[in-house]
C-alpha cells in the first residue's frame, strides 16, 4: 500500500512538471535554448537510468553504453530519413535493434568479470562506432542529416517509461536477482539464480533504453556523427551513475539533471568542463566511493529526515 | 532402504596436477543427518563444491534422486533440490534480511519479467506469496524482527542463522551446512543444533553437515564420514568413528604437526 | 618485398605498444588496476621529449632519458595521490578513478597549451635507409628496435636480478605475505609505477621521433591498444606484454596494408574480444579462480 501511494505521488508530480513545461512552451515563456536543454536533460536521464540497471543494480561494469545509444540513433535516423517511416516507428525500432545489439554483445562478454568486462564493453562500443564510420549509407565520418522531431512530449514520455519500467523491474523478484548478483555472484548462483540469464536481461533492458535515448538524441539535432558516440560519451553516462550513487535510481537521475545543466553553461569551455568532471569524479571516488546517494533512494532520504525530525 | 537420495561414486577432482579429492564414495539416505568431518584442508568444502556444482568432478559421478547432477551449474543443482550455506558467510550484505530470504525463494516463484514490469495481477500475487513465505522462514529462526535491517548489520550469530534461513528458503530436499557453528560460543552452538534438529523434522529434510569440531558432530549426526588428505578414511556411527584408529591418527597427527 | 617492409613497420609500431603494455601489465600484476592514465603518461613522455629536443637542444638519447625520469616521477605522483587510497576499494571505484585521472591529464594539457599538435623535428634520428632482401629498411626502425630491446633486457634484469624486482614479484604474488616478510609494499608499488611510467615515457619519445606528430590526445588509442596487447599476452606477464605488443603492431600494419586502414582500430578491439572470450588468461597468463 505504502509503495503504491509513493508511486501515485511521483506520477502526479511528474505530470505537473510536464504540464507546466508544456504550457510555458506554448506561451513562449521558455525559449528554444531552454527547450533544448530540457530535452537534453531527459535524454541524459534515460541514458543514466538505463546504465544504472546494468552497473548500479546488477553490478556489471559496462563502459561502452554510448555504443547502444549509437545503434539507436542510427537505426531511428535510417527509419525516418531513408525509409520515410514515422518518428514513433523509428523510436521503437531503435529500442528493438539496440536491445538485439545488447543481446549480441552481452551474451559473450557478460561471462567476463570486473575489469575484463569493462574493457570488453569498451571494445564492442568502439567496434560499433567504427562500423558506422565505415558505412557510406549512413554518411561515414561526415555523418547523417536528421530532421528535428524530438519534442518535449516525446522526451518526457521517454523518461517516464524508462523510469517506470526499470523501477518496476528492480522492485520484483527479477530485480532482486540482479541485486543478488551485484552483492555476491557465487551466493546468488547457489541460491538458484541463473546469473548469466539475469545479467543478460539487465544488459538488454539497459541497451534498449539507451537505444531509445539515442533515437531521441538523433532527432534533437540536425546531424549525427560517429564521433558523438565515442568513449567520452560512455564516460559521461558513467559519471551520472557513479556520481549519483551506485544502486540509486534517483541518484543517477539527480546527477544527470545536475551535470547536464552544469555542462550546458560550460559549453563554451569544454576543457574546463572535462577538468571539473574528472576532478569531481576522482574526489567522489576517493572520499565517497558509493557515490553521493549510495544505494539510497530519494524516498529513503526523506523518510530518514522525517524520522530524525520527530525524534528531535 | 531403497535408493539413497544422493550418491557419490568414485568422485575425484584435480586442480592442475593436484588431486584435491579422490575416490570418494558416499551415500545419504532420505531423512538422514550425516556428518562430514576431517582436519583442515582434508577436502570437505571441495566435496561440498562438487555436490553443489561449483566444481565439476574430474572423475566419478554424483547422482541425486537417481539422476546425475554432474556438470550442472550451481543454480541448476539448487533447483533440483540441494541448497547450501557457506563456511565464510556469503550473505547479500547490502540487502535487507527479508530480501536475502526472498532471493533464495526466487526460483520457486512463477511470475514473469513482463508481468512485473507491467505490474499485472500475477506479479502482485507472486510477490505477495514470496513475502509471506519469506517471513515464515524468518520467524522460525527468530529473525523476523530484523527483517528490514541490512544483513551486514546483524550480529555474527544472527548472520549464521540467516544463512541457514536463506538456504532453507530455496526449498531444498538436501541441505548442506558448511561449518554452521564456526565462531559461535557454546550456548549459541547448542541453540543452533536444536534449531537444525527442528527444521529437519519440520521440513522433512536430509542434511549433510561439515564440521571441523568433532565433538559437536558426534552429538547430532547419525552417520559420519571422515576425510583426510582428499580421501575417505572412515565411515560409521559416531561410536564407531570415535574408536577408529585411523581417525584418531588423522586428528592426532594434525595436532602433533601443529 | 613489400611484405617485409610491412613487417618492419609492424615491428616498430609493435615495439611502442610493447613498451606501453609493460607498464600496464606490471601495474595490473601488482595492484590489479587497469591504469587508464598510463596512455597519458606516454603522451606526457612524448611532450617532455619534444621540449627536450627543441627547447633544450638535447640529442635523442638524453631526451629519452629525461622523458623517462620525468614520467617516472609523474607515475609515482599519480599513484600516491589518486590510487593509493583505492587499494581496498571496489573494482568499479578503482577503474572509474583511473579513467578520471586519464581525462584530467588530457584536458589539463589541452587547457594549458591547446589541442594543437606539435611535430618532432625530422632529423632526431638519422634519415638513412638500408636495403635488406629488397626491402627498404628505415634506419629509424633499427634504432627503435635496439632501444626497445635494451629497455626490455634492462627490465628483465631489474625484475629478476635486483632486490626491488624480487620485492615486486613478491608483492604481486601476495601483498599481505610480502608485508609480513618485511617488504615495504608502498615503496614497491611506487617503484612499479615509476618503472612502468618510465617505459611509457620512452615509448612516447620513440613515437614522436618515428611518427613526428604528437598531440594531447595521442595517448588514448595507443594506450588502449597497449592494454589490449597486455591482455593478449596475458596480463601480469612481462614476456606476454612484449609478445602481445609485437603481434598487435604487426596485425594492425597488415590490416592497413591490405586496404582496410579504416578498420585498423577495430581490428585491435576484435582481437581483444576474441582473446577475452577464448583465452581470457592470455597467451602467457595463468588462470585464477575465485575461492568459494
Describe the protein's architecture and organization.
The complex is a heterotrimer of chains A (312), B (258) and C (292). By secondary structure, chain A is mostly helical. Helices cover 75% and strands 1% of the residues of chain A. Chain A has a domain at 16-227. The longest helix of chain A has 26 residues, at 32-57. In chain B, the strands form two sheets. Chain B has a six-stranded mixed β-sheet, sandwiched between helices. In chain B, strands 2-1-4-5 form a four-stranded antiparallel β-sheet, covered by helices on one side. The mean pLDDT of chain B is 90. Chain C has one domain (2-218). Helix content of chain C is 72%, strand content 4%. In chain C, the strands form two sheets. Chain C has a two-stranded antiparallel ribbon. A two-stranded antiparallel sheet of chain C has the order 2-3. In chain C, a hairpin with a 2-residue loop joins strand 2 (129-132) and strand 3. In chain C, helix 1 (2-31) packs antiparallel against helix 8. Chain C is globular. The model of chain C has no long low-confidence stretch (mean pLDDT 88). The chains are: A mainly alpha (312), B alpha/beta (258), C mainly alpha (292). The A-B interface holds A 165, 168-169, 172-177, 179-180, 183-184, 186-195, 201, 247, 295 and B 52, 54, 73-75, 78-79, 83-84, 86, 90-95, 99, 102-107, 109, 111, 113, 116-119, 123, 126-127, 130, 166-167, 170. Chain C: It is a multi-pass membrane protein. Chain C: Belongs to the binding-protein-dependent transport system permease family. LivHM subfamily. Chain C: It is found in: Cell membrane.
SSE blueprint and pairings:
The complex is a heterotrimer of chains A (312), B (258) and C (292).
Chain A: H1 2-26, H2 32-57, H3 65-82, H4 87-109, H5 114-133, E1 144-145, H6 152-170, H7 173-183, H8 185-190, H9 195-218, E2 223-224, H10 231-244, H11 249-265, H12 270-287, H13 298-311
Antiparallel strand pairs in A: 1-2
Chain B: E1 6-15, E2 18-28, E3 33-37, H1 44-51, E4 59-64, E5 67-68, H2 74-80, E6 82-84, H3 97-105, H4 113-117, H5 121-140, H6 156-169, E7 174-178, H7 186-203, E8 206-211, H8 214-220, E9 223-228, E10 231-236, H9 238-243, H10 245-257
Parallel strand pairs in B: 3-8, 3-9, 6-7, 7-8
Antiparallel strand pairs in B: 1-2, 1-4, 4-5, 9-10
Helix pairs in contact in B: 3-5, 3-6, 5-6
Chain C: H1 2-31, H2 38-54, H3 60-83, H4 91-113, E1 118-119, E2 129-132, E3 135-138, H5 139-161, H6 163-173, H7 175-180, H8 185-211, E4 213-214, H9 220-233, H10 238-257, H11 264-278
Antiparallel strand pairs in C: 1-4, 2-3
Amino acid at each position: 500500500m505504502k509503495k503504491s501511494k509513493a508511486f501515485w505521488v511521483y506520477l502526479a508530480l511528474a505530470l505537473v512538471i510536464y504540464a507546466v513545461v508544456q504550457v510555458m512552451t506554448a506561451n513562449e515563456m521558455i525559449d528554444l535554448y531552454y527547450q533544448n536543454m530540457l530535452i537534453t536533460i531527459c535524454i541524459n536521464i534515460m541514458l543514466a537510468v538505463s546504465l544504472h540497471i546494468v552497473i548500479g543494480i546488477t553490478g556489471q561494469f559496462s563502459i561502452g553504453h554510448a555504443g547502444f545509444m549509437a545503434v539507436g540513433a542510427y537505426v531511428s535516423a535510417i527509419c525516418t530519413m531513408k525509409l520515410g517511416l514515422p518518428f514513433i516507428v523509428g523510436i521503437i525500432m531503435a529500442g528493438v535493434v539496440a536491445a538485439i545489439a545488447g543481446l549480441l554483445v552481452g551474451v559473450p562478454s557478460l561471462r567476463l568479470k570486473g575489469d575484463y568486462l569493462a574493457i570488453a564493453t569498451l571494445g564492442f562500443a568502439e567496434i560499433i562506432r567504427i562500423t558506422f564510420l565505415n558505412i557510406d549509407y549512413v554518411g561515414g565520418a561526415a555523418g547523417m542529416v536528421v530532421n528535428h522531431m524530438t519534442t518535449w512530449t516525446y522526451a518526457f514520455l521517454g523518461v517516464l517509461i524508462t523510469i517506470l519500467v526499470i523501477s518496476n523491474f528492480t522492485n520484483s523478484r527479477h530485480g532482486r536477482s540482479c541485486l543478488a548478483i551485484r552483492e555476491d555472484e557465487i551466493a546468488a548462483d547457489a541460491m538458484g539464480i541463473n546469473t548469466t540469464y539475469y545479467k543478460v536481461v539487465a544488459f538488454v533492458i539497459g541497451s534498449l533504453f539507451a537505444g531509445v535515448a539515442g533515437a531521441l538524441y538523433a532527432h534533437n539535432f540536425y546531424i549525427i556523427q560517429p564521433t558523438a558516440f565515442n568513449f567520452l560519451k560512455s564516460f559521461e553516462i558513467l559519471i551520472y551513475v557513479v556520481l549519483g550513487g551506485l544502486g540509486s535510481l534517483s541518484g543517477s537521475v539527480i546527477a544527470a539533471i545536475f551535470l547536464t545543466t552544469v555542462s550546458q553553461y560550460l559549453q563554451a569551455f569544454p576543457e574546463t568542463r572535462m577538468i571539473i568532471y574528472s576532478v569531481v569524479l576522482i574526489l567522489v571516488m576517493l572520499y565517497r566511493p558509493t557515490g553521493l546517494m549510495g544505494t539510497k533512494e530519494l524516498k529513503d532520504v526523506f523518510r530518514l529526515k522525517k524520522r530524525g525530525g520527530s525524534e528531535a | 532402504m531403497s535408493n539413497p537420495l544422493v550418491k557419490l561414486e568414485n568422485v575425484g577432482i584435480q586442480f592442475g596436477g593436484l588431486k584435491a579429492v579422490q575416490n570418494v564414495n558416499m551415500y545419504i539416505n532420505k531423512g538422514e543427518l550425516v556428518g562430514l568431518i576431517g582436519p583442515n584442508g582434508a577436502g570437505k568444502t571441495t566435496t561440498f563444491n562438487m555436490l553443489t556444482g561449483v566444481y565439476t568432478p574430474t572423475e566419478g559421478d554424483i547422482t541425486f534422486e537417481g539422476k546425475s547432477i554432474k556438470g550442472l551449474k550451481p543454480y541448476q543443482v539448487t533447483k533440483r533440490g540441494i541448497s547450501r550455506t557457506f563456511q565464510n558467510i556469503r550473505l547479500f550484505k547490502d540487502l535487507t534480511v527479508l530480501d536475502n530470504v526472498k532471493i533464495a525463494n526466487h526460483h520457486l516463484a512463477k511470475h514473469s519479467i513482463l508481468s512485473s514490469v507491467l505490474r499485472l495481477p500475477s506479479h502482485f500475487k507472486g510477490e505477495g506469496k514470496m513475502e509471506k513465505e519469506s517471513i515464515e522462514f524468518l520467524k522460525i529462526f527468530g529473525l523476523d524482527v530484523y527483517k528490514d535491517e541490512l544483513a551486514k548489520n546483524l550480529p555474527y550469530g544472527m548472520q549464521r542463522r540467516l544463512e541457514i534461513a536463506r538456504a532453507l528458503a530455496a526449498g531444498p530436499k538436501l541441505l548442506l551446512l558448511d561449518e554452521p557453528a564456526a565462531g559461535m560460543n557454546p550456548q549459541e552452538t547448542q541453540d543452533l543444533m536444536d534449531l537444525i534438529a527442528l527444521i529437519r523434522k519440520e521440513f522433512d529434510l536430509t542434511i549433510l553437515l561439515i564440521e571441523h569440531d568433532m565433538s559437536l558432530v558426534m552429538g547430532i549426526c547419525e552417520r559420519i564420514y571422515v576425510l583426510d588428505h582428499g580421501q575417505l578414511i572412515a565411515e560409521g556411527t559416531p561410536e564407531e568413528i570415535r574408536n577408529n584408529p585411523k581417525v584418531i591418527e588423522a586428528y592426532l597427527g594434525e595436532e602433533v604437526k601443529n | 618485398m613489400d611484405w617485409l617492409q610491412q613487417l618492419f613497420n609492424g615491428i616498430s609500431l609493435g615495439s611502442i605498444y610493447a613498451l606501453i603494455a609493460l607498464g600496464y601489465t606490471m601495474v595490473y600484476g601488482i595492484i590489479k588496476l587497469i591504469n587508464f592514465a598510463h596512455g597519458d603518461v606516454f603522451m606526457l613522455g612524448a611532450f617532455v621529449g619534444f621540449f627536450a629536443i627543441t627547447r633544450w637542444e638535447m640529442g635523442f638519447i638524453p631526451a629519452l632519458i629525461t622523458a623517462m625520469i620525468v614520467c617516472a616521477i609523474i607515475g609515482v605522483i599519480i599513484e600516491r595521490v589518486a590510487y593509493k587510497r583505492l587499494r581496498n576499494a571496489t573494482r568499479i571505484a578503482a577503474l572509474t578513478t583511473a579513467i578520471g585521472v586519464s581525462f584530467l591529464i588530457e584536458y589539463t594539457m589541452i587547457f594549458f597549451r591547446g589541442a594543437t599538435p606539435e611535430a618532432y623535428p625530422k632529423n632526431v634520428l638519422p634519415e638513412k635507409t638500408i636495403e635488406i632482401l629488397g626491402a627498404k629498411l628505415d634506419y629509424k626502425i633499427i634504432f627503435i628496435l635496439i632501444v626497445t630491446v635494451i629497455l626490455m633486457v634492462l627490465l628483465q634484469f631489474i625484475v629478476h636480478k635486483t632486490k626491488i624486482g624480487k620485492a615486486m614479484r613478491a608483492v604481486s604474488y601476495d601483498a599481505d605475505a610480502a608485508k609480513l616478510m618485511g617488504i615495504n609494499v608502498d615503496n614497491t608499488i611506487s617503484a612499479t609505477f615509476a618503472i612502468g611510467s618510465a617505459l611509457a615515457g620512452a615509448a612516447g619519445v620513440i613515437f614522436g621521433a618515428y611518427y613526428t606528430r604528437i598531440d594531447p590526445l595521442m595517448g588514448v588509442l595507443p594506450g588502449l591498444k597497449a592494454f589490449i596487447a597486455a591482455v593478449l599476452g596475458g596480463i601480469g606477464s612481462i614476456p606476454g606484454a612484449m609478445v602481445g605488443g609485437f603481434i598487435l603492431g604487426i596485425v594492425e600494419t597488415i590490416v592497413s596494408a591490405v586496404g582496410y586502414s579504416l578498420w585498423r582500430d577495430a581490428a585491435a578491439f576484435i582481437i581483444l574480444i576474441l582473446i577475452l572470450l577464448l583465452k581470457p588468461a592470455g597467451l602467457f597468463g595463468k588462470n585464477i579462480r575465485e575461492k568459494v
